[in-house]
Amino acid sequence: MLSEKLSMEGMGQDAEVQVVENPLKEALAVDLEVKCTKRRSIPINKIKSMPPVNSKHEWPYPVAKNFPGRFERFSYRTYNWCENRLWPVRPLPFLTATVAATAFQVRDLGVEGVREDVQKLLKPLAISIGSIYTAVFLLRHILKYTYFSYKGYMFENSKKPSIATMIWGVLRKVLLYVAPPQLSSCDRLLPNLPLPALQDTVDRYVESMKHFMPEEVYAKLLEMSREFVANEGRSLQRYAWILHKFTDCYVTSLWEKYIYMAGRYPLLINSSVAQCTMYGPSDLIQAYQVARLLYIETIANLALDRQKYMAVGDGIMSTRHYKNIYNGCRVPGKNYDHFQWNKPAKHVILVHDCTWYKVDICDSNGKMYTVDQLAKIVAELMERDDKSAGFLRKIASLTTDRRTEWCANRQKFFIDNKHNRHLLGLIESAQFVMSVDGDLNWGVESTEQLSKYMKDMLAGSGSNRWVDKTMNYAVDASGRAGATGEHSPCDGAELDHLCENVLNVDKQVLVSPSTEKQLEIIKMSTEEKKTLKLAEKLNFQEVDGMESEINRCFDQHQKASDDLHMHSLAFTDFGKGRVKKCGISPDGFLQMAIQLANYYDQGKFVLTYEPGSVRFYANTRTETLRPVTDASCKFVKAMLNEEATQKERRDLLKEACEAHVENCKEVMTGKGVDRHLFVLCVLAKGLGYSSPFLEDYANQKWLLSTSNIPNMTNSVDEDISENNIMLGASFGAVAQDGYGICYRFAGNRAIMVHITSYNSSPATDSDRFGQHLREAIHTLADLFDEEPSNNNISKDV
Questions:
Q1: How far is CA 176 from CA 27, 28, 79, 715, in A?
Q2: C-alpha to C-alpha distances, 17 to 12, 233, 606, 613, 653, nearest whole angstrom
Q3: Of the candidates 420, 434, 443, the residue with the CA atom closest to the CA atom of residue 374
Q4: Boundary residue ending a domain (537, 562, 587)
Q5: Which of 581-585, 686-690, 783-787, 790-794 is predicted with the least confidence, judged by mean pLDDT?
Q6: Rounded to whole angstroms, how far apart are CA atoms 434 and 470?
Q7: Which of 171, 473, 741, 766 is in the most buried spot, having the most CB atoms within 10 Å?
């Protein structure tokens, strides 16, 4: 398939990168780490029937006491529908103005006159609505093409902003004061992603490739690029221009279909992304931790449905895909999958000892269960002796199969069986899936233990993940919690936002009872067994051929999991603080360390992927940031040149990081090359064009795939304690002979890096790369010390 042929970025590493020094920091809410605005949280003393909370911290969104009924949900969704089409005018002022204008027009008729002839009211009402909405429409379009389209501040010195930037900053403050946006209030005001000029894209791409091929091969690429621009490229660009003019984003629909939904590969490892908890141990027993996560995530789900989640970047960034985090499910197809969105469900799915249960999060009247009540339900579930037996314990392994085969098995074993179809519907419509694992004895005491834990979060056991669900949580016996995310419906930044809010509430907002108190809480009385809705076991029926297919899928996944080589590097010597003191971009610093480590590991420069943010534009996801530049290559070569001085190396590092920042700015403002070329590839394939240039582009392999996990909320202070450090995320390497590197700066204390490769490849070794990277990080930092330590990387390559 085209998606597999393009092999763009492995579907698992699209957390967004922000490395732009932003002027007017007090006026602008988006900084290097995509900070979100801290809106006014609901006062703790106004919330009733909720768990004990820490008075120093507040919930990041309203806390619901009841699950919304049909009328309530219809009401707030209708309000939000209006809000998203009227902002910065609110629905209530719009309605008030309409009524006032209508009343003014019919003032001479009087109340009796209007009653006698209602039709006399319709024309004034239509005039009022039309005139007022026209004014709102014009205001919104002025904002769209000025305020939301302005990006000049990204390219200016923060200490000397231009007049245009200062006006923009003042307008931002005014808008936030007058009409603080909800999650998606501004989504329809974001400008469309620009379509770059064909020649610019081709030139940028060709320039980026010169470090990866011999001169004669590069000369051939240059010739192919000239022929492409002069011939089929022009026609394809015209079709791309038409697509650009008639859609809000000319990339996203094609990207989701051909990169994600057309992929026939198994999702775990290839498309999944692991999200993990904090470095420190949990202070909750397993049943109580499960219950607390059920409660927190249900509250978050309802807040998201009400559009009360934080507005990312005060509304100047796209939030189109947040709705896909909960409730939805990817559905396999013969040739293409599709995403099925569902309204918030009143149940979740729990997996304990390979047995599947439906757990309701509210009573029959819609009143939300408390954490303590949910803990009792979970504990009762865990103590049951009704566990599944035989091959049905591994029934979820069917979802780990290749998508075409899973589509056929889903039809045969579930859709065609009335009983199993009902159970499948419960799973696919659930808010999320949570696995209650056994005593795995994992921790962060050693690299080996941490790597094993991260590998399980990415790959699962083969029987405890319903892979199609966007979120699969996992809580082990120690109370440590993580998650496996399905990447197609949303990007890493959305998942990071979700996880940061969970950790904030779980670790800082809610008060943890003592262990003794928790053990007392989970005990269920006879009366509570009658009043609480206990977990409902999903008893799947056996179908002919099911056993052999389950065993095949399970064994197949075990082989894939065994081939995955994970190395988790918890670098706690220093963090972002020391890097910033050097006066360079933290992301640029680590990217250069990765380049240096990779050159030492492979002895050459390789095509490197890093996702960059383009979410300033409507309905966008990511663009490729290519970290290998002339400046980065000069720096690496200088580091391996014994005759180069420390000053020369330091200057080259600064130049490389500056080039990286400028590259990121170009990407963020829609001047990337890869999504544009991808669209041209799709159009060429669909329209029957033969293009050697595009074929060559599509066959390039990302041997080094990297991703920086941004800090979305800054709600967890990781500098307080080592236990507050968040482990970050991981994803599978894109190429069979390549590496997948996911990293994040844990405040000023640490750098968390998770490296994946495949044991079957003789060219790669995650442990080896991890050692090179540790040495490279020290080496780069030492360039700024007066007396460098002896951590310099070896020069022998």
A1: 10, 11, 19, 20
A2: 14, 30, 20, 6, 19
A3: 434
A4: 562
A5: 790-794
A6: 11
A7: 741
pLDDT in tens, 616-662: 999 999 999 999 999 999 999 999 999 999 999 999 999 999 999 99
Mean residue pLDDT of the chain comes to: 88
Give the number of domains in the chain: 2
Residue type, 99: V
**pLDDT surpassing 50 at residue 145:** yes
pLDDT at 722: 79
Q: Which domain holds residue 444?
A: 274-562
- DSSP-derived letter for residue 20 is P
Beta strand spans in 316-456 (E) = 329-331, 338-340, 347-352, 355-360, 433-436
As annotated, the active-site residues are 487
Amino acid type, 150: Y
d(CA 558, CA 600): 32
Which has more pLDDT, 722 or 196? 196
Q: Which amino acid is at 543?
A: V
Same domain, 444 and 545: yes
50 phi and psi angles, rounded to 5 deg? -135, 165
Q: Token digits for 632?
A: 């980065």
CB within 8 Å of 41: residues ≥ 6 apart: 58, 59, 60, 61
Q: What's the pLDDT at 159?
A: 80
Give the pLDDT band of residue 249 (cuts 50, 70, 90).
very high
CB 290 within 8 A of CB 29: no
Give the CATH number for residue 341: 3.30.559.70
* pTM (whole model) above 0.85: yes
| pLDDT digits 0-9 by tens, 154-189 | 888 778 889 999 999 999 999 999 999 999 999 999
CB 574 within 8 A of CB 722: no
Beta bridge partners of 742: 707, 754
540 SS3 class: coil
Cβ neighbour number for residue 721 with a 10 Å cutoff: 12
With tokens 């103005």, the residue in question is: 97
Q: How far apart are CA 758 and CA 740, in angstroms?
A: 10
H-helix or E-strand spanning residue 550: helix 546-563
Q: Are 285 and 424 in a shared domain?
A: yes
Closest residue by Cα to residue 465 from 382, 350, 634, 362: 350
Say if 174 falls within a structural domain.
yes
**Amino acid making up residue 287:** A
In terms of pLDDT, which residue wins out, 497 or 559? 559
> In this predicted structure, what is the pLDDT of residue 156?
85
Cβ proximity of 193 and 251 under 8 Å:
yes
> Among 159, 189, 219, which residue terminates a domain?
189
Confidence at residue 381, expressed as pLDDT on a 0 to 100 scale = 94
Quote the pLDDT of residue 3. 41
What residues have CB less than 8 Å from 200, skipping those under 6 apart?
671
Torsion of Cα atoms, 588 then 593 then 597 then 602, to 10°: 20
- 213 within a domain of the structure (yes/no): no
Q: How far apart are CA 586 and CA 670, in angstroms?
A: 23
What is the C-alpha to C-alpha distance for residues 310 and 35, in angstroms, rounded to an integer? 10
Same domain, 158 and 278: no
Rg of the chain, C-alpha, whole Å = 27
Decide if 510 is inside a domain.
yes
Q: What is the DSSP string of 109-135?
A: THHHHHHH-THHHHHHHHHHHHHHHHH
Question: How would residue 278 be classed by pLDDT, with cut points 50, 70 and 90?
Answer: confident
Counting residues of the chain whose pLDDT is more than 90, the rounded percentage is 73
